[in-house]
Design goal:
alpha+beta; 23 helices; 7 strands; elongated; disordered N terminus; disordered C terminus
Length: 607
């Protein structure tokens, strides 16, 4: 049996902490308490909260337990003389500590500076690569997880400080020729990069990507070395390298999308293309090592899911993206069936399955495979509902450059109602109107379009109640109209499905989605993309644009300028002014928007 003695100042009479058969017994003598850590007879090692017999680590966790006044009071009053630690097999950050009926968990920084103090007081003779590795794991434990209810962003600063110290330590050891530490330095930079974007309210993209680049290069260097660090296999290094590729690919695209919000621009395409290459390489590594652990299968599913998204961004390859998503779901479901319900990975797997089904339904809808789209959307709603998942929080993007579109659309609806009803609804008897009277008739399609636009604008502001009301009004008006609305009513029903989805009304969302798909199956036909059908029609119409412009009375020079999207913009402005408005400076349309539309309309692949 092995005993480890530690002295800690605390106001506790006595307590026992048990973990995996080991015991820490603490007894107070006045103001001083001595704690003895004892392993069961015949046992050589124990994983106490991921400490692996590490005295400083154990001391830090004791300090956590003893740092709560409520606990001290409970023990002093002999309400509960025993304390227990419930351990699992899933890493130090996953261990909750239950003491005297109180539960403590990561981030440990919420319990004060006692843990950091124990870390800093570690004896100097323990400075080794093992100490550096422990520092990395400890940093992960104290930084916590932003999804935790009481997560404190300040824990990130503490974790970053510890990680930088671990890198400095490894660098120093390597310079002294004591250990081949490139792998450990790489792992430190990888963890540091992850930590820099942990606070998604304030992510440090540039810094994180710099760390990932250093990490990737060092992992590749380590893979090519004949001599590996103690206890490290070549596959371990390759898996870490694959982790770096996934994080770099996904984060670089996310960063680019944050900076450029309008459409898929050239920069975004380049970044997404590089990210797709990284995700493909990472997927190959995870697939090769699939049988090693469930973790690799989960990582493969996640990489495939992101790779599928990049395939859409770079080439609109719906078939490739769908195949990748189907494979991702297959791996997720395999792990889901095998792991126990208490496994902390389970919630992430469930979310991955639901999100993959959602993306797959989008793909099949755009491919015009309507029955398959319905089935995958039904699966999406089932997983969200059955496992009580939070609704998606993705922002709905609308083009509103000036930021006044909502007010302008509401004013248009107000003017329409005022013109039509004069403030109240009236009926005009037959044969009442006389020649020359101005009679206004309802235009249900126009009014429905206004409500549909208002619904989208409200949904972009996350005002879901108002959005749903506008969408419902638009659907009713399209239904009342005697003029065929084409696929417009399907578009609104699809938007209504999205609004219900974001509101967590999964049954209503499925009904609206099914109705939308039924409309598309009639108006757009199978095999066609309802998202781009109108644009495809526009492209066909533009083939006769020159004839149309001639009919409008524009001269040949103006037509040439207008149909040449790369032409002289100033000459085009002047020509349009002369032809259409007689040098009236108050041009009634936005030439920049028109030019952008014409440019986009020629980029058929991107559309």
């Amino acid at each position: 049996a092995i005993s480890i003695l530690a002295l800690i100042i605390c106001k506790v009479r006595s307590q026992e902490i048990h973990a995996s058969g080991a015991k820490i017994s603490c007894t107070r003598n006045g103001g001083e308490i001595s704690c003895e850590f004892t392993l069961p007879e015949g046992t050589e090692t124990v994983d106490l909260l991921g400490c692996l017999n590490d005295e400083a680590c154990i001391q830090a966790h004791i300090a956590i337990v003893q740092s709560k006044e409520e606990l001290l009071a409970a023990v002093d009053q002999e309400k509960n003389s025993a304390a227990s630690i419930e351990a699992t097999e899933h890493g130090a950050e996953s261990y909750p500590i239950t003491v005297a009926g109180q539960t403590y968990q990561a981030p440990w920084s919420q319990y004060g500076s006692s843990v950091a103090s124990a870390l800093r007081e570690r004896p100097s003779d323990l400075n080794s690569w093992e100490y550096g590795d422990w520092m990395v794991n400890f940093a992960v434990a104290i930084r916590g997880n932003p999804t935790e209810e009481n997560w404190n962003p300040s824990s990130v600063d503490e974790a970053v400080s510890i990680l930088k110290s671990s890198i400095e330590l490894y660098d120093s050891l390597e310079q002294q020729g004591l250990v081949n530490s490139k792998f450990y330095i790489a792992n430190g930079y990888l963890t540091l990069g992850e930590t820099m974007v942990l606070d998604f309210q304030n992510p440090h993209y540039e810094t994180a990507l710099e760390y990932f680049e250093i990490s990737s290069k060092l992992f590749k260097y380590s893979m090519n070395q004949n001599e590996l660090p103690p206890g490290i296999e070549r596959d371990d290094i390759e898996l870490k390298w694959a982790d770096t590729l996934v994080l770099t690919g996904v984060l670089s695209v996310e960063k680019q999308m944050k900076h450029v919000g309008e459409g898929i621009l050239e920069g975004q395409l380049n970044v997404a293309s590089k990210a797709a290459d990284m995700l493909e390489m990472a997927s190959a590594v995870f697939r090769r090592l699939l049988q090693v652990s469930f973790t690799n299968r989960i990582k493969l599913a996640n990489a495939l899911q992101n790779y599928a998204a990049m395939s859409i961004m770079t080439s609109l390859d719906l078939q490739k993206s769908s195949d990748l998503l189907e494979e991702a779901i297959e791996h997720y479901l395999y792990v889901f069936e095998e792991i126990e319900g208490s496994n902390p990975e389970r919630n992430g797997i469930i979310s991955g399955i639901a999100q993959a089904y959602s993306s797959l339904s989008d793909n099949y809808l755009q491919a015009g495979k309507y029955d398959m789209a319905k089935d995958k959307y039904r699966q999406t709603m089932m997983w969200y509902k059955n496992y009580n998942l939070d609704p998606p929080t993705d922002e709905v993007q609308v083009v509103d450059i000036e930021g006044t579109l909502l007010e302008e659309t509401e004013k248009a609806l107000e003017d329409y109602n005022s013109m039509l009803y004069g403030g109240q609804e009236i009926s005009i008897p037959n044969n009442y109107a006389k020649p020359g009277d101005q009679i206004y008739e309802s235009d249900f399609l126009y009014e429905a379009g206004l409500h549909a636009n208002l619904g989208s604008l409200r949904m972009a502001r996350n005002e879901l109640h108002l959005a749903i009301n506008h969408f419902a009004n638009a659907i009713e008006l399209y239904t009342r109209s005697t003029v065929d609305s084409g696929q417009s009513i399907g578009d609104v029903k699809l938007s209504l499905a999205m609004a219900y989805f974001k509101q967590g009304e999964y049954g209503f969302s499925l009904d609206a989605y099914s109705d939308a798909v039924d409309v598309y199956s009639v108006t757009v036909k199978a095999g066609n993309n309802p998202m781009t059908e109108e644009l495809e029609n526009l492209l066909q119409d533009m083939e006769g644009l020159e004839n149309f412009l001639q009919e409008q009375g524009l001269d040949a020079e103006t037509i040439q300028l207008l149909t040449d999207v790369n032409g002289d913009e100033e000459n085009l402005r002047e020509a349009l002014n002369n032809d259409l408005f007689g040098n009236n400076e108050d041009i009634l349309f936005d030439l920049d928007a028109l030019k952008a539309s014409l440019e986009n309309a020629t980029l058929k692949d991107e559309l």
